[in-house]
Write a structure and sequence with these properties.
Chain lengths: ~160, ~160
């Protein structure tokens, strides 16, 4: 089981170290972490994905809430939400295989960011399942490099 | 000036705490941080964006390289690369304004992830400039919530 937890924190030096220290001291695993800007330049949002049961989620929530620079903690257990991750993937291509790779990209709604003789860079956003299926389709061509931003989540509007 | 630094690190508990501690102890600011999966399940990629001059970049590179769990550090100062960030933004809409918001989304190549009576959730990927221009166009409608994953970078193929 995986939980997505999102914390609004003050944009100050040392905040990330405190959050990371908290996770490390308690042995909480982190599957992905995204720290990015929000609508307020003084506030960052950290979105953490942690594997574990509801007890782990409760502990992480509580510990995060206790930090002085935390403004708000939100989990999405009971909230309808969109969860998205951005993946960049560099795939080997030859002139014979290029069209096939581009067709797969098109079907998945991926963007082609770079094309060279020997490889293309594709960009795809989506949930875990979609990204996994995309990687599976590209594997036979040869994946040179793959990276993901880590997930972010936003509650749907009621 | 901003630098994008990417580190491949072993996927172990405590690695993030060590990296964050290093930044905090030396007073390096972090503008964004993305920690996500790679093609190897035992390896994560951390992409850090740090403001500062070339001396700062050199220091960050060196310090990161010294950590035992670091496999490789890469900066993109002299490398042609693609840099992307994923943004989710919830925008207020009324039935009168909805079409206008959707047209802006279409022009920017944004995806509409959720639509309700009072708000829509849009998703856009791109570089800093594009995301900033998108936010500027949406501001007059009322931004309820905005979040970004933090940037990731990939070298173009030669």
């Amino acid at each position: 089981m995986r939980h997505v937890i999102s914390a609004l924190v003050r944009n100050k030096p040392g905040v990330l170290a405190r959050v990371a220290g908290l996770f490390s001291a308690r042995g909480f695993n982190i599957e992905s972490l995204a720290v990015g800007e929000t609508e307020d330049p003084d506030v960052s949002r950290m979105t953490v994905v942690v594997p574990g049961d509801d007890a782990i989620l409760e502990q992480v929530r509580k510990q995060l809430s206790k930090l002085v620079d935390t403004i708000r903690v939100q989990d999405f257990r009971d909230t309808p939400c969109v969860v998205r991750d951005l993946m960049l993937v560099k795939v080997k291509t030859t002139s014979a295989k290029r069209t096939e790779v581009c067709t797969i990209a098109e079907v998945f709604g991926a963007n082609i960011l770079d094309m060279a003789e020997k490889a293309v860079i594709l960009e795809l956003t989506g949930d875990q399942d979609k990204l996994a299926r995309f990687v599976k389709m590209l594997n036979p061509f040869g994946i040179v490099e793959m990276m993901r931003t880590g997930r972010v989540a936003m509650a749907r509007t009621e």
